[in-house]
Amino acid sequence: MGRYTGPKCRLCRREGMKLFLKGVRCESEKCAIARRDYPPGNVSVRRGKVSSYGEGLREKQKVKRFYGVFEEQFRRYFAIASRSKGNTGETLMTIFERRLDNVVFKLGWAMSRAEARQLITHGHINVNGKRVNVPSYSVEQNDEIKARGAATSQKRVKTRADETKGRQCPSWLALDQDSMGGKVVGMPTREDVSIPIQEQLIVELLSK
To answer: What end-to-end distance do the CA atoms of the chain give, in Å?
Structure first.
């Protein structure tokens, strides 16, 4: 029997994809999804056919775990997406992408979105020159994100930036490693969402 990898790694195996919930471990060969690419439990047990409701619920839970949001936040984002013009599902996913904790993670300043939320809540991140300690803050085009000038903030961000140097920054973000800064040069599109998700199933689930 394989060594127990903890509840978060088991979530990755159950969803069949990397959720990047364990930071450094997710980038290494120790990641549960890399070691055992199948759901936890007895692999000989066949799972029954999932209903359309179950499929939609699973997709919703996948998004919640990936971005680290609770049900109330998710419902609020869905309401915003429903009132917006365009495809509701695609709009919903871009709303998640614009969260400040996701931006900090994508800039390579944290090993996971959970660590990015900690950086923000502890006051290490500035947006347009002002400290923002709300991880759900939604960035806009031309926003400038920087590590605060304090030595502690600079050290924490630089350490992580060095460790994630090979991570690709999305095209809608511009990273300046020297100044420990980043800029929102565009708005994310559906193609920028890295999670393999069928958002239309979520729309159908929540529209009933």
So the answer is: 43
